[in-house]
Every structure is written in structure tokens, then in C-alpha cells.
Amino acid sequence: MTFAQILGQERVLGSLVSALASGQLHHAYLFGGPEGVGKELTARTLAQAANCERGEADACGECGPCRRIAGRNHPDVLLVLPEAELIARGWAGRADFSGKPSREIKIAQIRHLQERLSLKALEARRKMAIIGCAEAMNVQAQNALLKTLEEPPDATTLVLVSSAPHALLPTIRSRCLKLAFAPLPLGLVAERVARERGADPATARLCAALAGGSLGQALALDPKALARRQEMLARIEGLAPGDARAALLLAEDLATDRASAEAHLDLLEAWYRDLATLASGGSPEGLINCDLGELAAASAARHGAPEALRRIELCRSARAKLRFNASHRLQTEQLLLRFLFPDV
Length: 344
Hints:
The protein is an alpha/beta fold. Helix content is 53%, strand content 7%. Helix 5 runs parallel beside helix 6 and helix 14 crosses helix 15. It is globular and about 65 Å long.
């Protein structure tokens, strides 16, 4: 992997290439931005570039260090992730952990990282530590990391990768050089979805719009959920005020597992963004759910912008709770009940 292969992040990459060329790589970076726009990929490529045998301000992707870093088996390039995320990626099994795999990054993981960083590099010119899903560090882990950020080992760079950098302690954020990753152009995302998923142009455009410029999320969208999208939205908009039983039955269908609950939250947030746009006088041409204009117009007129915005915040709150291991079924039930009962 080289920087040239990372798409849509020219400003960030220019800053990193300049730092590498001048030998002024910062000791700690915070890569913040939406999920699926290349933050972790850039962090890995930065580790390759800093240790590439060619010694240029980019990685070649072919030398020994580049290949070992890409394969996650370089002794001086360390990656920290929540246990549950390691399992989700297929990089670990449940048997590797005692008890239920955590969705947090725990203080023991940070202590182990610090121990590894304190050792002399075995072969790297620059040791690198990448903390993925950095917002998942619990408070104890973040406080433990402060010591390393304040007194970093020589020739070491830490990269914190986060889709919610505001969730990190101010003391953590202030000790990192912050680089903001932007959503990718929708045309670029749609083209990649069409090529990699074999989707027709209309479906590819819809995936790109629903993912909000996140290639990772666009590629991960469940085609079955997309096919049921209109039915789901019609059922939600058809819920009668005060009909708690219907809301609970719908929640049972939407939250068959954590992945389906998260996918439906994404669809709902996009839907209510459309309604807020229409209710505020925006043009229907820019709707994410552009194929559901009639339903969107009727729903926007019924709800109004304040209610649409309230429901967006409820979706975001539910997603944040799911990130920290809350019950997907309970969160979906509470979400739909709060749609119908604003005072709950």
C-alpha cells in the first residue's frame, strides 16, 4: 500500500508526506473522521512509509518491512483494538479471551502497549503504535495513555484512530496533532460499490448516499436490509401514536442481532435527515432516499423539522450505547417507544 492508493484524503496525506520528507514526524496523531474513509489504512501506510527500505516519504509496499507491517507481524508496529473488534475482523477467537470479549479498550491493553514501546526497537527506524477505535478506551485506559503521550519514547509515533474523537478526554486530544479525514465524494464511493459489489448504478448511488461518504460503510450495507428499506420505513411511519405494542413487535423484526440493529439505525438516521431537509424547505433533489420522495414529503409534513431532528439524536444516542455493549434489542425497543412517546 502507498499513499497514492488512498483516495479522497489529499490534504491529510500532504501533511504526512511533508513530515516524513523533513524528518519531523509528530510523536502522536489523532486521525478523526467518519468510519470507513481510510483512517486506519492511512495509519498503517504511515507506519510502512516511516520504515520502508527505500527511505522515501512514502511506502513501496514491496520491501520486507512494508510486507510485514501489512501482514500485522512486524515486531515494532503495534495495533490495539477492542477484543470484540479483533473477533469481528477474524484476527482472534473467543477462546483467546477469558469471559465475554470487551467492546472497550482496557487499561491492561494500554499497559501492555507501554511495556512493548519501552523496549528497544528490534528492526524499525521508528516504532509505531496504532490505537484503532480509540474512542473505545475507557477512562482508566485513557489516563494511563497520558504518560506515554507526555513522555513518548524516542523514535516513536502513536496514532489514535477515531470516528468519535470528541469522546476522548480533552487531555488526550490536546497532546495529539489532529488530522481531520473528510467523507469521500459520493461519486467515488458509488463507483467502488458498483465495481466491488456488482451493484447496478442506482443501487450503488443509494449505498453511497446512505453511507454518507464512507466507503467502508457503503460496502458493508446489507443488500437484504436495503431491499426491505421501504417496507421498514412505511411500517415506522405507520405507527399510531401511543401504540406501544406495534412498536415492540417492529423492534423484534429490526433487531434480530447487533449488526441488523446497527444497519437499521443508519437507515433511520438517513431517513430523518431527509425529513428534516424537506421540512426546512430544502430541495427534494438532494435526498438520500431519493426513490421514496412521496413518502418522505408526507412524513416531513406530518413530523416537522424539530421532530425529525429529535429522532436523529435518538438514533445517534442508541448507536453510541450499542458501541459500549448495550442490548441491541432493548435499544431498538426504547428508540421506537421514544419516537411515539416524546416524554419517556
